[in-house]
Design a protein that fits this description.
It is a single chain. The protein has one domain: Rossmann fold (3-Layer(aba) Sandwich). The chain is about 45% helix and about 20% strand. It is of the alpha/beta class. It contains nine helices and nine strands. The relative contact order is 0.20. Helix 3 runs parallel beside helix 5. The strands form two sheets. Strands 1, 2, 3, 4, 5, 8 and 9 form a seven-stranded parallel sheet that branches. Strands 6-7 form a two-stranded antiparallel sheet. The longest helix has 12 residues. Strand 8, helix 7 and strand 9 form a beta-alpha-beta unit.
C-alpha cells in the first residue's frame, strides 16, 4: 500500500497543465505538494468532487481534469459515476484515494470495506477504463506509460494509507483570492 503524500508527489512530478480538483485530506496535502493556480480545492461538500470535476472537464475539453477523490466521499455520491460515464469526457481522470475510511470524520471504516471495488463500480457505470494500483512502483509506471494522456473517463483506484502529516489550511481552501486566481487561470 502507498502513502498518500508519496502517491500525490509522484503525480505532481508529472503534472503539466492539468486542472486538479482535490477534496478533503488530498486537498490539504495537494496545496503543499503541487501549488498551482489550476488547483480547485475544497472540503465540506462530501461526494461533490467528481461532479465539480465533470463540470470543469465539460467546460474545458481542451484541458485534462484530474480529480483526487476520497473513497468515502465517492460513496456519498455514487450516482456521479453513471453521470460521468454518460457524459464521457475524454479529458477526465478520476483518482480515488482509497484508504477504507471516512478519514476526515474520524477514520470511520467505510461500509463493506473489504468487498468494495471502485474500479468495478466504474466499469459497471460505463467508464472507458479503470485501474487499481497498490504500490508506488505500479503507479509511477502507469504515469510514465502515459496514463495522464489516455482518453477517459478513467477511474484510478489508488490503494493508500496516510503518510506525512501536512498542516491543514482551511482558509487557503476557501480564500476568495485563490478562487479568483483559479478563474483567471481557467480563462487563459
Amino acid at each position: 500500500m502507498m502513502q498518500r503524500d508519496t502517491c500525490l508527489k509522484a503525480l505532481a512530478r508529472r503534472r503539466t497543465d492539468e486542472i486538479v480538483v482535490a477534496v478533503y485530506m488530498a486537498a490539504q496535502e495537494w496545496i503543499h505538494i503541487s501549488p498551482s493556480e489550476l488547483n480547485y480545492t475544497f472540503t465540506g461538500a462530501m461526494g461533490q468532487g467528481s461532479s465539480h470535476a465533470l463540470g470543469l472537464a465539460l467546460g474545458r475539453p481542451d484541458r485534462r481534469v484530474v480529480v483526487l477523490d476520497g473513497d468515502g466521499s465517492l460513496l456519498m455520491n455514487l450516482g456521479a459515476l453513471v453521470t460521468i460515464a454518460n457524459a464521457a469526457p475524454k479529458n477526465f481522470i478520476h483518482c480515488v484515494c482509497e484508504n477504507g475510511t471516512y478519514e476526515t470524520n474520524g477514520a470511520v471504516s467505510i461500509p463493506n470495506r473489504p468487498r468494495v471495488s471502485f474500479a468495478g463500480l466504474a466499469r459497471a457505470a460505463g467508464y472507458q477504463k479503470s485501474h487499481e494500483f497498490a504500490t508506488l512502483e505500479e503507479w509511477e509506471r502507469a504515469l510514465d506509460g502515459g496514463l495522464l494522456m489516455e482518453d477517459g473517463p478513467i477511474l484510478v483506484d489508488l490503494k493508500m494509507e496516510p503518510g506525512e502529516k501536512y498542516p491543514e489550511d482551511f482558509r487557503r481552501l476557501y480564500n476568495t483570492e485563490f478562487r479568483e486566481a483559479f478563474k483567471k487561470a481557467l480563462a487563459k
